[in-house]
Write a structure and sequence with these properties.
By secondary structure, this protein is mainly alpha-helical. The chain contains 3 helices and 2 strands; from the N terminus they run αβαβα.
Length: 87
Amino acid sequence: MLPHMDILKGYGQYWFVTITPYGKDIEPNVPDKKKVMEDFKKLSDIVGVDSMGWRYDPILVDEEHPVGWHIAEFGKMAETLSGYTNT
């Protein structure tokens, strides 16, 4: 969508983007989270911080992804997305 945002500029927009810290073992068809976060920032620069929402779900808790891991990963991702969303 990023190459076509000029066409949508005149429309009110709100984007929810799901970004999780899982790898290809859990989400084999999802692009790398670093790429998704960079694209999130680009989209936020176009539509504005108040038009962006970040979703951190689903939250899978197991031996490889304990609660502490989620807390740490969420913190890192939130730091990266800071200033690009309020939601």
